[in-house]
Prior knowledge:
Blueprint: E1 2-9, H1 17-27, E2 31-35, H2 46-51, E3 56-60, E4 68-72, E5 78-80, E6 92-97, E7 107-113, H3 127-141, E8 152-158, H4 171-174, H5 182-194, E9 198-199, H6 200-204, E10 214-215, H7 222-225, E11 228-229, E12 232-236, E13 244-249, E14 265-270
Parallel strand pairs: 1-2, 7-8
Antiparallel strand pairs: 1-14, 2-4, 3-4, 5-6, 6-7, 8-12, 9-12, 10-11, 13-14
Amino acid sequence: MQFTLTTWNINSVRLRIGLVAKFIKAVRPDVLCLQETKCPDDAFPLKRFKRLGYEHVALNGQKGYHGVAVISKLPFDATHIRSFCDKIDSRHVSVAFGDKAQIRKPLVLHNFYVPAGGDIPDPALNPKFQHKLAFLDEMKACGPLHPRGDQRHVLVGDLNVAPHEHDVWSHRQLLKVVSHTPIECEKLLSAQAEGDWIDVARSRIPQSEKVYTWWSYRAADWTVADRGRRLDHIWVSRALGECVRDFRITREARGWERPSDHVPVTVMLEL
């Protein structure tokens, strides 16, 4: 069974529902994970997604900020929301696929929106950065999050850290910029190691090659400057490592009309 999954920080699902529909019609992923939906659950555009063929939706939203959603052609066996740092701020939702989706061996999917962390990379001066570091620590310490043995888990989302040298346009110039500071990179990679997760992008693209999924709105022409960062990730458990058949970053979506500053990232698995 082929299983196609896309993650995308959409930066307001209601504002960009037309772009989501455009992408869905072109790619037709089985599951779409969105972050920064900026939408309370009762205002989420469920009818539009159902018309597009996505009947099953798991939501964790709030008004104006954050928010995550899993939109699926396949039914869920279970859904779950986890809070981090004692905050109710809509940064995680997980679903399990199994018998209802005719998937013989269960598959657990986690969708995350990690705090951005503000502008000052000093937790003593910047509570937002302190929150981000604590969030990453809790991700590492969260036992149920991490796969063990032959468990089939996928973790996706805007993790707001570009952990490797060539995940940013300039390693040297961004070492003191939030999203690529050494402490953030260490904490994200430590969480990844805790679950022995496979970073799909870097398992398929050499470490020496530049890879981005985000380009700032501040650039007058993002294509010319090309000052990107790889903030959006797809991780799979070791049990799924041999199941990856394709991986794509839809870079051209950054050039669509009124785009998100992030672009869709897609993996295809053979389950």
